[in-house]
Amino acid sequence: MTTEFAMLSDKIRSRAARVGVVGLGYVGLPLAVEFAAAGFPVTGIDVQDSKVAQINAGESYVQDIPTSTLAPLVEEGKLRATTDFSV
User: Fold this and answer.
1) What is the tens place of the pLDDT at every residue in 4-19?
2) Tell me: the pLDDT tens digits for 17-74?
3) C-alpha–C-alpha distance, residues 42 and 36, integer Å
4) CA–CA separation, 15 vs 28, rounded Å?
């Protein structure tokens, strides 16, 4: 096992691996929420300022993700959104 693989594997097991999700629509937001709920720090990236602002305010615009599920993840710092693809 390579050192890089072992380090990544350890980070995944310990939930220290950072997850990035590009596109926060009807597939991306639920995926980001699931990773955050599983304990991973998640950064979602989208080109629409309005989506990013709503997520960072803890408000869901996706029917399958209630605001009551999203808001605590944002408040706890487990999920954040940005338009900055350099992150």
Assistant:
1) 999 999 999 999 999 9
2) 999 999 999 999 999 999 999 999 999 999 999 999 999 999 999 999 999 999 999 9
3) 6
4) 19
The encoded tokens of residue 44 equal: 């979602």
Q: Are 78 and 32 in contact (CB under 8 A)?
A: no
The tokens for 16 are 């220290």
Token pair listed for 40: 């991973």
In the structure encoding, which two tokens stand for residue 82, read together?
Answer: 């940005």
Residue 85 sits at the vertex; the CA angle it makes with 82 and 86, to the nearest 5 degrees, is 110
Between the CA of residue 57 and those of 9, 63, 67, what are the distances in Å?
A: 32, 17, 10
Count of C-beta atoms within a 10 Å radius of residue 28: 17
